[in-house]
Amino acid sequence: MANAVEKILVDGRQAVRDALAGMRTGLAFTVRGSWPRSTDDGVLITVGEYTNVATDCPVVDEIAYQVDLWAFDRETVVALSQLVNEALTGLGLKRQYAGPDTVSDDPAGYCRKTFRYGRRVDKRTMRLID
What we know:
Elements: H1 2-6, H2 13-21, E1 30-32, E2 44-54, E3 60-71, H3 74-90, E4 94-98, E5 102-103, E6 111-122, E7 127-129
Parallel strand pairs: 1-2
Antiparallel strand pairs: 2-3, 3-6, 4-6, 5-6, 6-7
């Protein structure tokens, strides 16, 4: 049994995307996997798997997802930051990293903030654990 469980790959990307897409706000945004290519992309939340690794315990994996917020002003980034935190901690993930607000040097002038959320997963039950 443990051997079969060891081979399971934990994948929570869709749950993370769904939680982000379901955030209730008056702000218009898009959730996708790639960074903005032009200002036409508007306000974006990009999400991807940051890590998905085995641990010393064969039935426990460690997962983390990186979320980047891209907007044209800091106020929008701050508002989305709170919503993202609520959505992902609501899934049971823990915030592992929050980067500084940055403003892009490119002509689009995006303001960006990076977060990472993750946790350990018991692969026998697919429950998040500490």
